[in-house]
Design goal:
The structure is a homodimer. By secondary structure, chain A is an alpha+beta fold. Helix content of chain A is 35%, strand content 19%. Chain A contains 19 helices and 23 strands. In chain A, a hairpin with a 5-residue loop joins β7 and β8.
């Protein structure tokens, strides 16, 4: 059933973020990430693994240019020996494909981030660079619309032959996301044309009709990208292709078992179809499984389709999957994916802190999924999860100076283990400049650049405020342009004051204000008569006869909280985490000395005893929490095992200095810990 | 410097074990393990993976028989396609080798266990079976002395070409251990001849001289086996070959880097030489590294050579390595090898309980190493570790009915994780009948069969009692046969009473009695004047004018102990283990309900409050400990994360029922936990 409050993301052109906190992040993207990544895409970063992304597009463009020459023969898959890296990295063969199968997406994610940056901050020089790059990409597209440089350069005779593993539809999805964003931002629709032609070509090869492949993406994203393309162009065929992917997925006989190589014997014990969320039809799925990023992207597409087609079974599946993620399988940081083996979900309540995978991209995916659930049915449970992931699991992925990134975001780090324990080699202690598989940095960039579209969504007459950040929004209601100026004051450590100035609003206009979970239901709304407020699903709907300039205030209580886990989370038995507002806090060795396993917070210590202090960390101001704690006396001279006698079992009172989780690892390699033992 | 108390293992012919506890284990080996394994070696166990061990020997024997026929051509390595399993398991090609490279050792370990069993319990039928099998093995040996059915059947042109990986010297080591044991037990020296000829052939191919390979075993054991062969035969050349292996190991340039395939790029980050303990010369090694079983076997050989050649540098390396193992890298159960990745040691104090590898064979190896340290210099620190490993990490490897086995011995098990968490798939919750790589079951059998040689060692005039088990020992001193009858009474839960009757001892005779670490220095020795007792390194040396029949008693305090870990063991922060005498105790779900993570022992609870109870578990009587504990109230209805408020944070007093660790997993799949939270 269609939700009366169904809504969709606000157009970024209609929002200007003025918030210090988010402006700082966006400026990092604009001034650090985007320029750096352009160099990386062009293999010009000394010491970094080359991307070959632009190289591959240029090679494909040159191939197409040659294709009309007499005597031209197209590459044949299997005949051209495939190389990941050129023998001499300084001299790649200009005609060959290099890098991962999905290397094209390095560019697509970058250009999407560029689009958001240009929306907010016009930059003719950057736009010129981007326009020229798009022309190269357009030139690489085959005349029939196909675009994937891996197959174009290695032999299109094998295209769509291994949807399970070979990422063509994943590349298409990122192309499409970028194309829509870039057209919206700049009016240049060259890339949009590329995406549309590519979508049409895919539709001609994959679908329900006889003679087409009855497949779907091995790595999802096309589902939600096609929805975006549909919403931009109004072309139903894109919606239909997305729905086809959703509907076909997981049906018997399994497409992924039919195409490509048969499942090898040694993979048999693995639930391999669930890795791709293809173990059963999506409407029957009720447990988040498999590769976490893939899962988040699929569920996002499902929520899009469920909303647009008003598909109750699909909506219910989305709710169950959201619950499975957020109720059973999510870290307190909003990170998801407990294991590096398959970068995947494991089973409910299995949330190890020190071997967590919690890929930045999976937290980003959870933000995507949460917003789409909000679009389907605005309930604050979705926004709570979105905010948790954004402020913690996503932001920890990027350094405070914007120059390095985490792929993996653990909740506990013992540096020696990361160096010497083969089970933890995936857990890095310092962020890296760039990755061979560079999905996270540009993914963070495109999310931060478009954060306004997560803070606000809208429908015809309602503006939803999900995240509170200072900003100015324009919204057309009836024939009037309503202006909303929101000012979020986070200077007080105990409350979060938000002033909202609504101008030129007709009486149809509704302002929906989320009540964040972290305020514990304690807030004060003023400037509005009680009769103008209706509370539903964690949102305050304010509708009134608006004055020309109407100011209201809402103030949320923002206490420090000591948090426990569901007792089935074994890793956190007898431990607590500390949060403040949307932020999860952590201990770092830099502030608290080594051996964080010896640190405790005594039972009976109240969160209200915590003292606030501002401190500078790596050039950024952080609100530090000073928490009364205990430190167990180290015992290292009694042998490995010894009698638990009182004399060796004493504690010293200490003041724990806790920093926001996303501030960690900005001062060199050191221990870090989120969950703290209770004494 | 030679230790004045240097000693060596007692000849099993001179000991008869009468102890209920150990007799039961030995009877399991005799009545269950040995017959079952003979069936397994002959591929006659329905449903179990075939061993092919006897198949391979028969095939090699047939090949040798054919080798004199006209037109015979020997197999050429690389020409015969290598198969691990026959296409049709019911019809293996009688001429082909199947199974692991080291499949021959399945038989050698079995025949060694048979030897010990026959020593204690003559059985003409079993001996006939064994004699006939030995004749097959002898027939498989090449005329020049070479014996490894993998190369004999696949092509001897490649023999000794990959000492690093291909286990020829490992097979030889097990052959030799078995051969000495069988000759000692039965007087049949046919297998001893096989081992001697094989040793001579190896000496002709590997050694310091020009033209020989300057290599050493990739999987150690030959080092200690050659010492045993030397001690049995008096032939110095065997001692020299062992010393050569010890001396050459880890020298630059690394032999393992020279022979065989070069190290592939993807292995580069791994400290690959350390996996084989070949990263530096053994005398420079001071940290236990690499594959744990390999390490234990090497260190055992080092201790043998250090003792026999009075090599101070080697002795010091042995002490450092023993300390590294037992002080930094050993579980409270005596298990070693923290990770399944490479079945290996990790770094100091990294002792995860739920992902532990702690292979049964590694605990067995630690028993070997400890006894050899005792032989070198009898200090009770070595015996304490030996006893800890034997009663816990080794015994847990075999089911109480002797019919199934653990390869991996974790200290904490959550069955769902073993099924659904790819990081814990190696952790089984129920013992298995047999393994494709069947090293542990026969290794346990040969250790249990020869446990008397770990309980007692001797030198010219001294009998060392390391483990207290009821038994009768004969020992020649001067020209007299001294009889020692030891009776260990463990019926009291608070003390361990030992009566020792010494008969016919000359005044030269010394009885050295270990003071176990678990008695906390509390013991009473009676029946001996104070002047007759000298205490050194944890042993009481009793020397006196012995009466014809002289009885003395020693009674060890045997308290329940609550044990902590060195605080650098992060996994055990805030946790205690419970021990009683040499036994480590554990909680099982069967006795304590599910969610063992919620169980605690309150600070202030004294170990003296523990109550004893006898109970029957899977047909065996166990001493159960009833420990006053607490159980945290489960909270599963508050969402995944919630405020740590007092109302949800309550505990109920419970009585924890703890069973000896080695009793675990004998009542079906369930949770188990050794380390318990303190409240």
């Amino acid at each position: 059933m269609r939700d009366e409050h169904e809504n969709r993301a606000i157009d970024l052109k209609n929002i200007r973020i003025t918030d210090d906190f988010w402006k700082t992040e966006q400026e990092l993207v604009r001034t650090e990430v985007i320029p750096y990544q352009w160099e990386a895409l062009n293999d010009r970063v000394p010491g970094a693994a080359p991307s070959f992304a632009m190289h591959n597009f240029r090679a494909a463009k040159a191939l197409r240019a040659r294709s009309h020459e007499p005597g031209f023969t197209a590459p044949v898959f299997g005949k051209v020996p495939f190389e990941v890296l050129p023998e001499d990295p300084a001299h790649p063969d200009p005609g060959k494909f290099y890098g991962f199968l999905f290397q094209d997406t390095d560019f697509y994610k970058w250009i999407e981030a560029v689009a958001y940056s240009l929306t907010d901050h016009p930059d003719p020089e950057l736009q010129k660079t981007a326009d020229e790059a798009i022309t190269i990409v357009a030139g690489a597209q085959a005349e029939d619309g196909y675009l994937d440089t891996y197959y174009i350069l290695n032999g299109r005779n094998a295209e769509f032959s291994n949807l399970r593993d070979n990422h063509e539809l994943y590349c298409f999805g990122h192309l499409t996301e970028a194309a829509v964003a870039y057209a919206q931002a700049t009016g240049n629709s060259e890339l949009l044309g590329v995406a549309e032609r590519c979508a049409s070509y895919i539709s001609s090869k994959i679908g329900a009709e006889e003679g087409k492949k009855h497949g779907y993406p091995g790595h999802e994203i096309a589902e939600m990208a096609l929805v975006r393309l549909y919403e931009e162009t109004g072309e139903e065929k894109y919606l239909n292709l997305s729905r086809y992917f959703i509907d076909e997925r997981g049906k018997d006989p399994k497409y992924f078992g039919l195409e490509g190589r048969p499942q090898p014997e040694h993979e048999k014990p693995n639930p391999v179809f669930s890795y791709y969320q293809a173990h059963k039809p999506v409407r029957e799925q009720d447990e988040a499984m498999g590769h976490a990023v893939r899962a988040m992207y699929l569920y996002s597409g499902m929520a899009d389709i469920a909303r647009l087609t008003d598909d109750d079974a699909l909506k219910e599946a989305c709710r169950k999957l959201f619950s499975s993620v957020s109720r059973d399988k999510m870290y307190v940081t909003g990170g998801v994916g407990s294991t590096h083996i398959g970068e995947a979900f494991t089973f409910p309540y299995d949330l190890p802190n020190d071997t967590a995978y919690t890929e930045s991209c999976a937290a980003i995916g959870l933000v995507f999924f949460s917003r789409r659930m909000l679009e389907m049915e605005p309930k604050s449970i979705y926004a709570d999860v979105m905010e948790r992931a954004l402020y913690n699991g996503v932001l920890s992925g990027i350094a405070l100076d914007g120059k390095s990134f985490f792929y993996v975001n653990p909740l506990e780090v013992w540096p020696e283990a990361s160096h010497r324990d083969a089970r933890k080699l995936h857990v890095k202690n310092v962020r890296q400049k760039w990755f061979g598989c560079a999905c996270c940095p540009p993914n963070i960039a495109r999310l931060l650049g478009s954060v306004g579209a997560y803070a606000y969504t809208e429908n015809e007459d309602t503006l939803f405020t999900h995240l509170y950040m200072s900003s100015e929004i324009k919204k057309r209601v009836d024939d009037r342009e309503v202006s909303v100026k929101l000012s979020a004051d986070r200077s007080s450590p105990v409350k979060w004051d938000v002033k909202i100035l609504v101008e030129n609003a007709p009486s149809d206009f509704t302002l929906a204000l989320r009540i964040p979970g972290w305020c514990g239901g304690k807030y004060e709304l003023s400037g509005v008569p009680e009769s103008a407020v209706c509370k539903k699903d964690g949102y305050l709907y304010v509708k009134k006869d608006w004055a020309d300039a109407d100011e209201l205030q809402i103030s949320f209580s923002c206490p420090v909280r000591f948090i426990r886990s569901d007792t089935r989370v074994r890793e956190n038995s007898g431990k607590i985490a500390v949060t403040h507002g949307p932020l999860v806090y952590c201990l770092e060795e830099k502030d608290n000395g080594p051996d964080l396993n010896l640190v405790m917070i005594e039972r009976g210590t109240e969160a209200s005893e915590v003292v606030f202090e501002n401190a500078e960390i790596a050039g950024r101001t952080a609100e530090i929490l000073l928490v009364p704690g205990l430190r167990e006396q180290p015992v290292t001279d009694q042998g490995l095992y010894f009698d638990a006698e009182e004399k060796t079992d004493t504690c010293t009172p200490v003041t724990l200095r806790m920093i926001p989780y996303f501030f960690w690892a900005n001062r060199g390699e050191n221990e870090m810990q989120v969950w703290i033992r209770r004494a």
